[in-house]
Amino acid sequence: MSDPGPASDTPASAGVSEALAAPLWAVAEAVQDGVVCSDLRGTITLWMGGAETLFGWSSQEILGRSLAVLVPERLRSAYLAAFAHAAEGRRSDLVGAGVIEVEGLRRDGTAFPAELTLSRGSAHGQPFLVGIVRDISSRRSAEVELALARTRFRSAFEHAATGMTMTSPAGRFLAVNAAFCALVGRTQDDLSELAFSDITHPADQEDDLHHVTRMAAGEVDHVPIAKRYLRPGGEVVWVEGNVSLVRDEHGRPQHYLTQVIDVSERRRAASELERSNAELDQLAAVAAHDLNAPLRIVEGFLRLLEGRAGDALDADARRFVSEALGGARRMRDLIEALLGYARVGGDAVRREAVELGRVAAEAEGALAGAIRGRGVRVRVDALPTVRGDPALLRQVLQNLLGNAVIHADAVDPVVTVSARGTPEAWEIAVADNGPGVPDDLRATAFDLFARGEGGGTGLGLAICRRAVERHGGHIWIAEGTRGADLRFTLPR
């Protein structure tokens, strides 16, 4: 339909009374949406608000023209038919239909998506149409981008080589991919009727609840996991991966996204290696026990010799006996350290709540003699409660504290035990104000039989490393600090 062109004698408020035009003008000027009025034939009589910016027509250019110029050519017939129905008082898909999405046309010929609210009114017996137009190009682009992002995510989710799931805050499966179905030996239909706890090994359910509770409370937004799933026949599948919590626009938990890989073969290999190591540890323990027996005999006879024939021995002989006894004591200490190292690797690691503050106090009490003897000031900051094996953690803190007591400053010895938290782990530090660890010893400090200037068995730090690693943490010597600053982590 052709544009009738401007009507030069049509005022800006034609068809609208002055009483109505004034408030309409004030309202329209206060909004950014385009406000357009026309008579029932579709002739534009009022052009206000953001209409000029939206369509590119000034009020002088547009007044008197047909509404058809604001609509793409292919839609004009339908729009004008709707206006005609409104003029006749018949039902229209445009007039009085509330907010509808339409396509507008700018003066430069570009089309854009818009929201239109078109109403019929009357002033002093003169009917008119008033439309409010809002450009929704940005929103439509965002919707398209969101749809593309959802499509990409869905494709990545469905075709990922790793097992992926979406579960509700209550733990029900909302979506699973093919890789996860293959991993747990169940179909998507099977899993849609289940919660993740239904296929989780009973021994891992407490850890799962702990992780979910922390995420829901906002402490962390994702956690690494290592757990077991159960296939329908009872077969155990070990997995490792990550769980993250997705929240809605109000910050409420929406769903959990889990990504896991099957590590059963790796676990089996690790278990076999652990079994082999346990056999070696047992062998070391037996050997150490068997070595202790003849050592006690040698030490006993040396003491008898020293006691009964001491006066008859010359100075060299007494020195020989003394050195032999010293060697026997060092051998006994080494054997005890070997037994300690074997015990760290032998038993399963217990997982229970451990108050590190109490453990540190027990370690300090066990070392009270050495602490008093050197006049060491020990400061223990607030320490957290962690999940772990109390016996192993006590051994770690006692070894590190004992090491720090030995190497603290000779004049004013100070040892500090402190902790700091990250979303994934607790970091514990035991530091002294001594000369520190020489650079050439840092790389091997945690190796078996690594000895510094303080002597010792060379197994204390090796035991610490083994115990910490069995908890899933790591231990190291911090850089850039005065004295020795040894730190280790424990997963939350």
From TrEMBL:
Enzyme superclass (EC): transferase
Gene Ontology molecular-function annotations: phosphorelay sensor kinase activity
GO cellular component assignments: plasma membrane
Record's protein name: histidine kinase
Keyword Secreted: no
Domain PAC: 98-148, 223-275
InterPro entries reported for this sequence: HATPase_C_sf, HATPase_dom, His_kinase_dom, HisK_dim/P_dom, HisK_dim/P_sf, PAC, PAS, PAS-assoc_C
GO biological process, alphabetically ordered: regulation of DNA-templated transcription
Species for this entry: Baekduia soli
Entry keyword set: Kinase, Phosphoprotein, Transferase, Two-component regulatory system
